[in-house]
Specification:
alpha/beta, 5-stranded mixed sheet, 5-stranded parallel sheet, 17 strands, globular, binds zinc ion
């Protein structure tokens, strides 16, 4: 037995028998993951063993003690790093990362589309992205997947359902149109009743939708307050898609929990009031920063590409001012953003935003988990957390690029790669 275990009661025979009855046979066995380095979501623990039982992390050992009897041992070697499964705070499983995602979405009925969502989710999981927050599907299809058991081999999915948008507004084709007090309240309640985990609102226009202007607001502050208050009453956080400065300011004022994109689009460029950047940092709202694209992927949307340097400069300024920032890749929206793009976003956080590798790793694990309300179960290698684990080759604290060198992935204690 491990002498230095912090929770020896975890090895009680009685617990084991109870657990065996609760879980499918593949999850019965105790697993021990060993590597030269364990990053626990906050810091590096150096060489350690992670004990997994019944789909959860039951213990951590840094003493080098022999593993519990009967455990199945995975020794990944001294140059491997075990870290919490990564969290992508902004994906679209319904988009297929093609050159025209709106067109290909329109060509699929719900039956074929749900298969595509599943394939997209599996692709994310195999890159170590064990949790995805889907901020816009069609007809609530992501909920069909999110209800499946962990052994289905999918990441944990945090679904918003169709984003709430104005009539004919940004992403109206996803089916979330609602305007006016009553319709907005009804839209939030429908999402809560269906079991969505977050309410997404298109506060400004966007680049994907013909006729939509990213720099223009779709809703005014009074509308946004209604949506946020209704969401919070229902126990759901609210996520705001925001490009224009007015939309950003109103979303902060209305009390949204996360701001998505935050590009400060004007009609022909980018313009951010430094006072607003500081206000975002001081408010504690989470900025879900749209970074990450695969190497040799196609360039971003021309409207983004032309503004990229200014957008990145503002994000860096917000970060230095103390804003809480997590990566939300917008996976699925373009060919440069397949559903397994998140590991590349960590490099972007370092090279563009100015995070240290440690800060980038925290942003995609423990900070992201807290940002989307999953701090109790996700984003940490700690006793009691879900055994969603990524193993990579290399030292990500020295070279953040090593997070793309996937060695193994565990989801709820099941080795999926
Ligand atoms: Zn999006």
């Amino acid at each position: 037995m491990l002498a230095e275990m912090s929770h020896p009661e975890a090895y009680d025979e009685r617990c084991s028998a109870e657990a065996a009855n609760r879980w499918v046979p593949t999850m019965n066995q105790m697993l021990v993951l060993r590597a030269g380095q364990v990053f626990n979501g906050e810091r590096s623990l150096g060489q350690a063993s992670v004990v997994i039982r019944d789909g959860k992390i039951s213990d951590l050992d840094t003493s080098g003690a022999p593993p519990p009897e009967g455990a199945r041992i995975f020794d990944f070697g001294s140059d491997a790093c075990v870290l919490p499964g990564l969290i992508d705070a902004h994906v679209h499983l319904a988009f297929d990362a093609s050159a025209d995602v709106v067109k290909s979405l329109a060509a699929r009925d719900d039956n074929t589309l749900v298969d595509h969502l599943e394939a997209a989710a599996i692709r994310a999981l195999h890159a170590g992205v064990t949790t995805v927050r889907d901020l816009g599907d069609r007809t609530y299809l992501s909920l069909k997947l999110s209800g499946r058991v962990p052994s289905a081999g999918l990441p944990h999915i945090v679904p918003s359902g169709p984003p709430i948008t104005t009539n004919g507004g940004h992403c109206h084709f996803l089916g979330g149109e609602a305007e006016g007090d009553a319709a907005l309240r009804a839209a939030v309640l429908e999402r809560a009743e269906r079991g969505c985990s977050v309410v997404k609102v298109m506060v400004s226009g966007g680049n994907l939708t013909v006729g939509s202007q990213p720099h223009q607001s779709q809703y005014d502050l009074a509308d946004l307050r209604i949506v946020v208050d209704e969401a919070h009453r229902a126990g759901l956080p609210a996520a705001a898609h925001v490009h224009g400065a007015q939309a950003v300011a109103d979303a902060v004022e209305a009390g949204f929990d996360t701001l998505e994109h935050v590009t400060f689009f004007t009609a022909d460029g980018v313009d951010a009031d430094p006072a607003l950047l500081d206000r975002i940092a001081a408010s504690g709202v989470v900025v879900s920063v749209t970074v990450g694209s695969v190497p040799d992927g196609s360039p971003p949307h021309p409207a983004i590409a032309q503004r990229m340097a200014a957008i990145v400069a503002n994000h860096g300024r917000m970060f230095r001012a103390g804003a809480t920032m997590v990566p939300g890749t917008d996976a699925g929206v373009s060919p440069g953003k397949p559903h397994d793009v998140l590991p590349y976003a960590l490099r972007a956080l370092v090279e563009r935003i100015g995070m240290t590798p440690l800060q980038a790793l925290r942003a995609a694990t423990s900070t992201a988990a807290s940002a989307i309300g999953l701090e109790a179960t996700k984003g940490r290698i700690a006793a009691g957390a879900d055994a969603d684990v990524l193993v990579i080759r290399g030292n990500p604290l020295a070279d953040i690029g090593s997070v793309t060198r996937t060695e193994a992935v565990f989801r709820a204690g099941i080795k999926v790669r």
